[in-house]
Specification:
It is a single chain. By secondary structure, this protein is an all-alpha fold. Among the domains are: about 75-120; about 135-245, no CATH class. The chain is built from 10 helices and no strands. It has helices at about 1-20, 25-45, 60-65, 90-115, 145-150, 155-170, 175-190, 200-210, 225-230, 235-245. Helix 5 (about 145-150) packs antiparallel against helix 6 (about 155-170) and helix 7 runs antiparallel to helix 9 (about 225-230). The radius of gyration is 37 Å and the shape is extended. The N and C termini lie far apart (about 120 Å). Its main location: mitochondrion. This is Protein PTCD3 homolog. It is found in: Mitochondrion. One of its GO terms (molecular function) is ribosomal small subunit binding. InterPro entries: PTCD3, Rib_mS39_PPR.
Length: about 250
């Protein structure tokens, strides 16, 4: 009887397969798959991407920097972090710092005198402080944007030169640009601002010439006075800038 039972089982399986393979069942199965895929498509269409957050090229570096704290127990960052090379006395510290600043000034001089040697700028983002300084002459073509960029970067000698070129070339400057220029001239007294990179040099000059900071160094009838007199209707900000310069 066992062989007969196995034959019956096989016949039942064949009948079930025939039912499944009927055209009507295939149509129902395909329609179900189509409806399922359409439902999936609807779900994808309803998905909404989050709004993009604007990031600058240095945001990741700033985030990493925020997790690192300065080691107050170690030497100053300008010195070598080595017990055998770290200066101990104040004279050694000043000598080391002055030597480092002089080396930086020598590198800047070579960069400015030979700008053609520094053409491979692969920094991303580009560090404009490392670029050679642009020199302006009487034949240079400038715009108001050039003057605004120089004012924003606090380059006083170049700003004065470009402003004179703008006046000679008849370039009109808006009130906001003139106000920014006046504030820069009043703050710097038409002299090049000392960079923070040369801190020791500034301190040494103050030690060698004590009392010079208390003297009145305002340039009478300078470009700041001329610019203020040329303003047809000076604003309160213009008066505040010239008063601070005279103080």
């Amino acid at each position: 009887m066992a062989p007969l039972q196995s034959v019956r089982c096989h016949l039942q399986l064949l009948n079930e397969l025939r039912k499944c393979l009927r055209p009507s069942n295939l149509i129902q199965t395909s329609s179900y798959s189509i409806s399922a895929s359409s439902n999936l498509g609807n779900e994808k269409a309803e998905f909404k991407w989050p709004d993009r957050i604007e990031r600058s090229p240095t945001d990741i570096l700033k985030a990493i920097e925020s997790t690192i704290k300065r080691d107050k127990t170690g030497p100053h960052y300008r010195y070598h972090d080595d017990p055998f090379l770290t200066p101990q006395s104040n004279v050694e510290k000043r000598t080391f710092s002055m030597a480092k600043e002089n080396g930086r000034k020598a590198a800047m001089m070579i960069r400015d005198q030979n700008p053609e040697l520094f053409f491979n700028m692969s920094d991303n983002p580009l560090i404009k402080s490392f670029l050679p300084t642009t020199e302006y002459s009487e034949n240079s073509t400038v715009t108001a944007d050039t003057l605004r960029e120089l004012v924003a970067t606090y380059k006083v000698p170049e700003t004065v030169t470009v402003y004179k070129l703008c006046v000679e070339q008849g370039i009109e400057l808006d009130a906001e640009t003139l106000q920014s220029l006046l504030e820069l001239l009043c703050f710097s007294n038409e002299e090049e601002l000392l960079s923070d990179e040369f801190y020791e040099e500034h301190n040494l000059s103050r030690m060698q010439h004590p009392g010079t900071e208390t003297q009145n160094t305002w340039k009478m009838n300078g470009l700041a006075d001329t610019l203020f007199d040329q303003l047809s209707n000076p604003s309160a900000a213009a008066y505040a800038a010239i008063i601070r310069g005279l103080a």
